[in-house]
UniProtKB/TrEMBL annotation:
Keywords tagged on the record: ATP-binding, Cobalamin biosynthesis, Nucleotide-binding, Transferase
Gene Ontology molecular function, alphabetical: ATP binding; corrinoid adenosyltransferase activity
Protein name, as recorded: Corrinoid adenosyltransferase
SUPFAM superfamilies: Cobalamin adenosyltransferase-like
Domain of life: Bacteria
Coiled-coil regions, chain positions: none
Enzyme class, UniProt record, top EC level: transferase
First and last residue of the signal peptide: none
Species in which this protein is naturally found: Salipaludibacillus keqinensis
Length: 185
């Protein structure tokens, strides 16, 4: 089997249920979810199993969930058995709470950075936010998976908490935004 099909050579692609231009909002959304998945893969290369085994398990699970989300976003057929479940969000919330407790309290925004793994998780956070905005844009026009927006919103929170935990585990202090006001009360 060859990897190339030549089906997209004219700028079209196939959603589940119809053919669309590659510039279609759904293609942009699931393409951004795919970009996020790749960015997570890169983040994982910076996290050592000895210090971050729990996080590596989380991130692998999240990568599978993002494939589920991509499939959901590509589905415009009448048969919509959504793969992304509320339970995905529930698990993220528990993990966010755990990681949040590991890092020292903050009251202002922080600058993205610190350890390489933390910095890459901040990149993941921003890509998740972009994916969320794209899904909201689609939702304004047509039906989308019911838990997609909340999942992406919570996922960006997860990356923030995880990045802070990576820095805390390494003894690297987050750099506080100097002109910031009290936002985390």
């Amino acid at each position: 089997m060859k990897i190339y099909t030549k089906n997209g050579d004219q700028g079209d692609t196939q959603l589940i249920g119809k053919k669309v231009k590659k510039t279609h909002d759904r293609v942009e959304a699931y393409g951004t979810v795919d970009e996020l998945n790749s960015s997570i893969g890169l983040a994982m290369t910076f996290l050592h199993k000895s210090n971050h085994e729990d996080m590596l398990k989380d991130l692998t699970r999240i990568q599978h969930e993002l494939f589920d989300l991509g499939g959901d976003l590509a589905n415009v057929s009448k048969k919509q058995d959504w793969a992304v479940k509320k339970e995905y969000i529930d698990v993220l919330e528990k993990r966010i709470d755990n990681y949040w407790e590991e890092a020292p309290p903050i009251h202002t925004f922080i600058l993205p950075g610190g350890e390489q793994g933390a910095a890459q998780l901040h990149v993941c956070r921003t890509i998740a936010r972009r994916a969320e905005r794209l899904v909201v844009k689609i939702t304004d026009q047509e039906e989308t998976p019911p838990h997609a927006i909340a999942y992406l919103n919570r996922l960006s929170d997860y990356f923030f908490a995880a990045a802070r935990a990576v820095n805390a585990r390494a003894g690297t202090e987050d750099i506080l935004y100097e002109r910031g006001k009290d936002v985390f009360k």
